[in-house]
């Protein structure tokens, strides 16, 4: 609203108040004209209706309020009789008969009855408007009380939830610090334990390597002893053979000499000598094998048996050593497998703890916005709403004829029927209440009601879909987080499901699952409530106008 319009409306309002004796201050008029809600409407109404063409002068008002018989004297006293007489030529005016007077009296009586009925109708409308204003004021007061009640409950609930969230955040922060400290300490302890185990294994492997080197080298003394024994036995066989041959030759020669000396032996022929030589030579060949067998049985076989006994003991010792080495290596491999399983379990726990810690930190990092502050007092609502069909219609000029007694009286209150007020409150177009009657009006209202219901259903469906999409996204995120935690926990576990080392993490997972089930239950409850929801305005409209 521009300044010129506001100044013009202020002048019209102050002039009308002074003219009709209404006590009003300039600052009050300015305050109402500057109001954000109805200031522009008040200025527009004053510009349209508080003009000289629409307002009665004080004399005209006095004439309208007095009885009709002394009206001529009032006109004569005011000097209006001569002015009115000059307006018409009295010679052209026909004489008034008694019938005309009766007709005029009847017409005046009918006009009086019509005015009385109209006054009664206006009084009823004013009473209805007063009741409507009073009802609206009561509803506004109850609504304000309900709003204040709801705001106080919401604030207390918000404070309670904020306190619970703060306590849970502090507890979660302590738990996170404990988990991080436990993870760091467990990592250092694991590194120390693994280092100690590896050092022990290295010592054992070094000892096994030394033992293997000792088993791979043959005994040089044993080999030299066997070679020396075989050489000695071969010399002994040779000496024994030569000794036996020498004894045999000596014995044979002695026998021949004794036989020759005794003379009892006849001379031998050449054939006998050759046969005897052959026999002696055969004995020489048999002496070598017999001597060799004798020496082997007497000396070499016991020595070899002794050496083989000692070699068997050495082989047994080597076999035992190899079995010991094999068992040690199996033990080391088994322990490495167990250590690998423990390390993988530890890493799985660490990954699960890190994932939970990251999720908790991201949730704790979300800033909780404070609630929007509601204005302390709502803008005052105009008690007399202006109908659009009437504000856009230019004011009707009144005629200057004196006989026009049906002029519209101008005042500060616009008379609105209760039905128009209700239609304006429900945002129903004025064409429905003015242009249609009876069945057509019912059909139009039904169509508007159906459109409102469709719009309400669309809004409800949109809100439901938005809520379901958000809830589904959160449920998918929670389900994915639980699946990741479960997969990390069940990794490398072919048998029963393992339990987490920290029972509090298991409790957190259980709480998450319970929250998911609670969200599902709330979602189902909202869907049930959505089906049973009814419109309060529709029920009120049907109860009042049905």
Automatic annotation (TrEMBL):
Naturally occurring in which organism (per UniProt): Trichoderma arundinaceum
- The protein, known as: Vacuolar h+ ca2+ exchanger
Ranges of Polar residues compositional bias? 377-394
Region spans: Disordered: 377-414
- What are the Basic residues biased-composition ranges? 395-410
């Amino acid at each position: 609203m521009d300044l010129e319009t506001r100044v013009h409306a202020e002048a019209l309002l102050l002039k009308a108040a002074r003219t009709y004796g209404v006590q009003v201050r300039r600052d009050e008029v300015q305050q109402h004209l500057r109001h954000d809600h109805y200031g522009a409407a008040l200025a527009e109404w004053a510009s349209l209706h508080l003009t000289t063409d629409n307002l009665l002068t004080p004399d005209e008002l006095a004439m309208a309020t007095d009885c009709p018989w002394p009206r001529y004297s009032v006109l004569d006293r005011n000097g209006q009789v001569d002015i009115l007489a000059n307006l018409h030529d009295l010679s052209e005016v026909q004489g008034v008969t008694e019938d005309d007077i009766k007709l005029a009296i009847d017409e005046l009586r009918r006009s009086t009855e019509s005015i009385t009925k109209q006054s009664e109708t206006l009084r009823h409308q004013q009473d209805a408007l007063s009741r409507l204003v009073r009802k609206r004021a009561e509803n506004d007061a109850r609504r304000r009380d309900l709003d204040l009640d709801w705001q106080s409950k919401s604030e207390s609930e918000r404070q309670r939830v904020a306190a619970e969230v703060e306590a849970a955040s502090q507890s979660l922060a302590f738990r996170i610090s404990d988990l991080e400290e436990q993870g760091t300490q467990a990592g250092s302890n694991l590194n120390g334990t693994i280092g100690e185990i590896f050092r022990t294994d290295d010592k054992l492997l070094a000892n096994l390597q030394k033992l293997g080197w000792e088993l791979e080298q043959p005994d040089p003394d044993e080999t030299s002893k066997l070679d020396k024994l075989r050489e000695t036995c071969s010399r002994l066989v040779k000496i024994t053979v030569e000794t036996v041959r020498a004894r045999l030759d000596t014995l044979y020669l002695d026998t021949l000499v004794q036989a020759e000396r005794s003379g009892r032996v006849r001379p031998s022929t050449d054939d006998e000598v050759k046969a005897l030589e052959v026999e002696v030579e055969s004995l020489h060949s048999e002496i070598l094998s017999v001597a060799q067998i004798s020496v082997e049985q007497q000396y070499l076989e016991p020595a070899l048996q002794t050496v083989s006994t000692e070699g068997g003991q050495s082989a047994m010792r080597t076999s035992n050593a190899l079995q010991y080495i094999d068992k040690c290596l199996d033990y080391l491999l088994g322990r490495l497998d167990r250590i690998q399983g423990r390390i993988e379990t530890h890493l799985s726990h660490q990954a699960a703890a890190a994932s939970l810690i990251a999720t908790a930190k991201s949730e704790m990092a979300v800033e909780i916005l404070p609630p929007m502050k509601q204005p302390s007092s709502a803008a005052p609502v105009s008690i007399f709403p202006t109908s659009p069909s009437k504000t856009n219609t230019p004011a009707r000029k009144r005629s200057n004829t004196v006989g026009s007694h049906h002029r519209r009286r101008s005042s500060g209150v616009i008379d609105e029927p209760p039905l128009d007020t209700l239609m304006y409150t429900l945002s129903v177009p004025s064409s429905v209440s003015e242009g249609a009657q009876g069945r057509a009006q019912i059909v139009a209202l039904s169509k508007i009601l159906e459109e409102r219901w469709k719009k309400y259903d669309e809004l409800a469906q949109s809100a439901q879909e938005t809520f379901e999409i958000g809830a589904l996204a959160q449920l998918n995120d929670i389900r994915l987080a639980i699946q990741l935690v479960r997969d990390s926990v069940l990794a490398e576990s072919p048998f029963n499901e393992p339990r987490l080392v920290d029972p509090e993490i298991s409790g957190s997972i259980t709480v998450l699952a319970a929250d998911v089930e609670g969200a599902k239950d709330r979602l189902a409850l909202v869907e049930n409530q959505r089906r049973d929801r009814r419109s309060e305005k529709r029920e009120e409209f049907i109860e009042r106008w049905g």
